From TrEMBL:
Organism per entry: Photobacterium aquae
PROSITE patterns linked to this entry: NA_NEUROTRAN_SYMP_1, NA_NEUROTRAN_SYMP_3
Entry's Gene Ontology molecular function annotations: symporter activity
Membrane protein topology class: Multi-pass membrane protein
Residue ranges of the TM segments: 12-30, 42-63, 84-108, 147-168, 180-201, 221-245, 257-282, 320-345, 357-379, 385-406, 426-445, 465-484
Name of the protein this chain belongs to: Transporter
Length: 495
């Protein structure tokens, strides 16, 4: 059967950008920048983008394009003993898919609330107590299923399923062509108004005010690198799957640069938006900005609703903001499901319709664990291990395999031979030395820290079972699939 293909170059870029731009850009990036030195964070961030983000994107686009397979098949073609890395990445994608959808579900609920600001004045109590109904719960004491959270999650699953089920061109590409322009227009409209509110510029000054003492702090560099891999959707099977549908004649270098620059540009724009709003809020409440900002999920679901309450025309701003969040989340969710679906199609020769139904059906059932009273805590714990341990390990191993066990100069020659502009030797330096060295240090620190200090006050049993245990099971499953694999590639592909 002939492999599906994107209908146009713009379609591919919009889909890749749709994957990259996600919840991570809208609430994670602004807070990270703020926490890690404000304006000074941009130095490690841009450095990580240039030395890790762009080279990684070029590498994954070329793997998918050349080897014409989702991650497991692509790695198997580099050598039969590498197939497990593809499955490990697919398992990361599968886990993220089932908790990310919970956040999209919350955003859908909040889209509903935003028309009349029915979250009230105490947005903190509203989110944690009234909406999530978080009581004396923990990741191992989830409580009961919350229908009012499950229903918006079902809506999110239905939209993602429809896109995956309909195929690369008729589903994913079409959805991206609607969602991405819509997202850009909404964000520009928001920012065009916010920037003129009193106090907004103070918020921006705050975001961009550099704290140079932070630049020497290893944690800041770790945060910057971690954010780059997550934000660009590299290292967890997505971009390899998407680029496996590229037509033969494709400009890899140009596509990779565009995807990275649009994503990171969007992040900075979202930073302007969020901090503009916070600056306004601080001014309205006559408080310093440090007192209005809150971390992580709290930023989107506690602080922003509180800020919307204070805005002129809240019934326009609120829906625009939460619809942007929903759209950004859905286009990423679609891509992460496609990473899993395409791997099953390759491996089991299922039809797309069957693979999409199995993936979304089982994903939906498991995701209901996050629609419980303790769902947020489970999400927090799993997300920590996936991002800080599993994803960074996967990226490091991918670099080692591609750059050290194979000839990386072959990749450079390959992409240069099909691209309009060429990339130089810096690419090899980044992929062979700089990025692996930095990643190894960061990962080592994460391991030690997590081992010694745990995370987030969760119990040893929870950390062992839902953190280390989960990553261990993912790894073992991947290795077992690799060992059972009979279909060795006819010949190992040369890049
Ligand atoms: N790049 C996404 C973001 O920044 C991360 C992601 C991609 C998450 C795909 C899930 C699925 O939010
Ligand atoms: Na992103």
């Amino acid at each position: 059967m002939k492999r599906e293909q994107w209908g146009s170059r713009a379609g591919f870029i919009l889909a890749a950008v749709g994957s990259a731009i996600g919840l991570g850009n809208i609430w994670r990036f602004p807070y990270m920048a703020y926490e890690n030195g404000g304006g000074a964070f941009f130095i490690p961030y841009l450095f990580a983008m240039l030395t890790a983000g762009i080279p990684f994107m070029i590498m994954e686009f070329s793997l998918g394009h050349k080897l014409r397979g989702a991650a497991p098949r692509a790695f198997a073609q580099l050598g039969g003993k590498f197939e497990w890395l593809g499955w490990f990445q697919v398992s990361i994608a599968a886990i993220i898919a089932i908790y990310y959808v919970a956040i999209i579900g919350w955003a859908i609920s909040y889209l509903g609330f935003s028309f009349s600001q029915s979250w009230g004045d105490d947005t903190n109590a509203f989110f944690f107590t009234e909406y999530l109904k978080l009581g004396e719960n923990s990741p191992s004491q989830l409580g009961g299923l919350q229908l009012h959270i499950a229903i918006p999650m079902i809506i999110a699953w239905a939209i993602s399923f429809a896109a995956i089920f309909s195929g690369v061109k008729a589903g994913i590409e079409r959805a991206s062509k609607i969602m991405m322009p819509l997202l850009f227009i909404m964000v520009l409209a928001l920012i065009g108004r916010i920037i003129f509110l009193p106090g907004a510029l103070d918020g921006l000054t705050y975001l961009f005010q550099p704290d140079f003492s932070k630049i020497m702090d290893a944690k800041v560099w770790s945060a910057a690198y971690g954010q780059i891999f997550f934000t660009l959707s590299v290292g967890f099977a997505i971009m390899i799957a998407y680029s496996s549908y590229l037509p033969e004649k494709s400009d890899i270098n140009n596509n990779a640069f565009m995807t990275v620059l649009i994503n990171c540009g969007f992040s900075i724009t979202a930073g302007l938006l969020i901090f503009g709003v916070l600056g306004y809020m601080a001014q309205e409440q006559a408080k310093p900005i440090t007192e209005v900002v809150s971390a992580g999920v709290g930023l989107a679901f506690v602080t922003i609703p509180a800020a919307i309450n204070l805005l002129p025309l809240p019934f326009i701003f609120g829906p625009l903001f939460f619809l942007a969040l929903v759209v950004a989340g859905l286009s990423s969710h679609i891509s992460i499901l496609e990473a899993v679906t395409s791997a099953l199609i390759d491996k089991l020769h299922w039809t797309r319709k069957k693979a999409a139904s199995v993936v979304c059906g089982s994903g939906f059932v498991i995701s209901m664990a996050f629609a419980t009273n303790g769902g947020l805590l489970l999400l927090d714990l799993v997300d920590y291990f996936i991002n800080n341990i599993a994803l960074l390990s996967s990226c490091l191993i991918e670099l080692v395999i591609v750059a050290w066990l194979l000839k990386i100069s072959d990749i450079r020659h390959y992409v240069n031979s099909i691209s309009e502009f060429s990339i130089g030797r810096w690419f090899e330096v980044c992929v062979r030395f700089l990025s692996p060295a930095l990643l190894a240090i960061i990962l080592f620190t994460n391991f030690i820290n997590t081992f010694n200090n745990g995370y987030g006050g969760y119990t040893q049993a929870e950390l062992l079972l839902l953190g280390w245990g989960l990553v261990g099971v993912m790894l073992m499953t991947s290795v077992i699939i690799n060992l059972m694999s009979k279909t060795q590639p006819q010949q190992e592909a040369k890049l």
